[in-house]
Write a structure and sequence with these properties.
- By secondary structure, this protein is of the alpha+beta class.
- It has 6 helices and 5 strands.
- Strand 2 and strand 3 form a beta hairpin.
Amino acid sequence: MLSASNVLRRGRVSETGRVYLITAVTWNRSPLFRDHRCARAVARIAHDPRTWRDSRCLAWVVMPDHWHGLVELGDESLDRVVGRFKAAVTRAMNRTSSRSYPVWQRTFHDRALRREDDLKAAARYLVANPLRAGLATSVGDYPYWNAVWL
């Protein structure tokens, strides 16, 4: 019997130059990023080009219990790129909190965008998540997001 994590990975393809919409969820959907210190740590890591190496994070948003990113893949596999991001966040969280459980669920969700997809529309949808969740009344009121088109 396949576990949920194996089912999520089955069929995952890493294609250089392809843009992926990524969702990484916290362990048991714990709202870790409601703590502003933790949310700022995630934001710094997501914004830092060193996190992504030859990939590029085009847009991202930190929600209380998950992170969304629009990532253009470089030469590394998607698993490796997302794994590096999640590991960097975990190290930062271990320095700022005293939790006794993991930061992230083991897997992540990804969707490869088609070449003809409008990347700016995908980014607008992604950064509007806090509005749909009732966390802010305008995108400008929510501090934990960014997009390269600004």
